Amino acid sequence: MQEIKKEYVSILAQIHRDGMIQPLGILLEDGRKFDIDEVKDKCRAASLKAGGCGIRYTIRIGARDTYLFDEDGRWFVEMRAG
Amino acid sequence: MDRSILHVDMNACYASIECLYDPSIRDKPVAVGGDAEARHGIILAKNQIAKKYGVTTGEALWQAKQKCPQLVIIKPHYDRYLRFSALARQIYNSYTDQVESFGLDECWLDVSGSVHLFGDSTVIAEEIRERVKRELGITVSVGVSYNKVFAKLGSDLKKPDAVSVLTRDNYRDKVWPLPASDLLYVGRATTRKLYNHGIETIGQLANTDPELLQAWFGKVGMILYWFANGLDNSPVMAVGDETIIKSIGNSTTTPRDLMNELDAKIVFYMLAESVAERMRDHGFLAKTVQISVRDNGLFWYQKQMKLDEPTCLASELCDTAMELLRMSYRWQNPLRSIGIRGCDLIPATTPKQLKLFEDEAEREKLEQLERAVDDIRRRFGHYAIYRAVVEFDPTLKHINPKEDHTIHPIGYFKAI
Fold it and tell me: What is the pLDDT of residues B40-56, one digit of tens each?
């Protein structure tokens, strides 16, 4: 099994009039940027792989689905280590 | 109609949360323990694997290490536990507004009014169990019953991650064979006393003549009889997120054992100052002072006393605490941890009866003095000013009562 680590990321988001946060892009620590093409789902969930819990966004980047977590204002993704 | 009560207990709460945050330790024996150097070196919680090695809550870290050399010991992160406790409550609150916390990791829920909306109590229990696991990543065990005492027993029957139902039909088979010590309010002393009377199980307790129990234990005897027979009808208190402040207290495990009255006085003063400061912050006066004492054998008790006059003065809290300690403790063993608490709080604006033969002006001056100290501390830090008594042993100074306070479970009968 591949090891997963918790990677805190910067995000670009649009905050709507009603307070809803819509993440638009992710900036990794190493400088790589990803645009979020679609937010498919949003729910409260724990990340057993990375270790944490918060509001989980199921997002699509290109053809791939992945999770983005809002842990009380700090955002993280589940990153493959190495 | 019978009530539908759930008791939800987060399994090995602190340890589970730490394991969630650090996946690499999940399949290892893990315990959450205090700081050994500051002598908070006891096990606060452990996971299931550590439990198999015989690691128990409350024992010293070195003892636990002896039983299980590869034990991973993690320092507690109270902010995390508070967050998870609040998140869990949010889940419970989506089923009923009657949620009563019992410590950080346990709650009672009265879902009697919600069964028509969400399905019967077992369905709700299963749903809560699933949701906490999915949304918070930790497991709970849920007890379902028609009263709070059995619901709590139920949550202990099967864990982790399980639901147990205790009904009027099955409680004799399921509850009665359990040891009496499992019952709420049966602590170490009561267990021993019951044992001396030949009572070992809850069933034996339930079938003992209540008058006999009353003769042995006084008022508590009747309570035990009711509890063992499921005759508990205490309500689940609908307390919101903001629990009404019922008492303000502080306790600490000291950097070294307290050997005599002077030691105790130093620590009581520091704790009392923080308690008094918080009471003034919130605009309360206390009518009762309570102390809790734990010796180095972890023998523990509480004592309380009514004050002649409500107070928010550290000096009066401390004097009362010392009086309580002198009355109740003989220094058979050194003390490891002490606590002080102001209870029976009333708003500071309550009109008060002035005393004819006491100097009220003096008390007012004292209060102004303490407020001035609060102000100095707010501006220059906690250690900018402190009482001379503390200088007798500066090692004891290094407890920071404000950040160090522990969270005690509240009493079962708090609102009755």
Answer: 678 888 998 999 999 98
For residue A61, give its domain range.
Answer: 4-80
Which residues of chain B have a Cβ shorter than 8 Å from any chain A Cβ? 20-23, 83-84, 87, 133-138
Select from B136, B138, B139, B140 the residue whose CB has the most chain A CBs within 10 Å, as the one to mutate to test that interface.
Answer: B136
Domain ranges within chain B, ordered by starting residue: 14-77, 176-228, 248-398
**Ramachandran class of A43: left when φ > 0, alpha when ψ lies in -120 to 50, beta otherwise:** beta
What pTM was estimated for this model as a whole? 0.69
pLDDT in tens, B166-218: 999 999 999 999 999 999 888 888 899 999 999 999 999 999 999 999 999 88
Concatenating the DSSP letter of every residue in B17-84 gives HHHHH-GGGTTS-EEEE--TTTT--BEEEE-HHHHHTT--TTSBHHHHHHH-TT-EEE---HHHHHHH
Closest Cα in chain A to B88: A44
| Number of separate domains in chain A | 1
The CATH fold of domain B176-228: DNA polymerase; domain 1 (1.10.150)
Residues 6+ apart with CB under 8 A from B260: B331
CATH number of this structure's domain B14-77: 3.40.1170.60
Asked whether this chain's domains B14-77 and B248-398 adopt the same fold, the reply is: no
State whether CATH 3.30.1490.100 applies to domain B248-398: yes
Residues 6+ apart with CB under 8 A from B4: B110, B111, B112, B115, B120, B121, B124, B144, B146
Cβ within 8 Å, pair A51-B83: no
Closest chain B residue to the Cα of A5, Cα to Cα: B23
Asked whether the beta carbons of residue A45 and residue B138 sit closer than 8 angstroms, the reply is no
Q: Calculate how close chain B gets to A38, using CA atoms only, in Å.
A: 22
Helices (runs of H) and strands (runs of E) counted in chain B:
15, 12
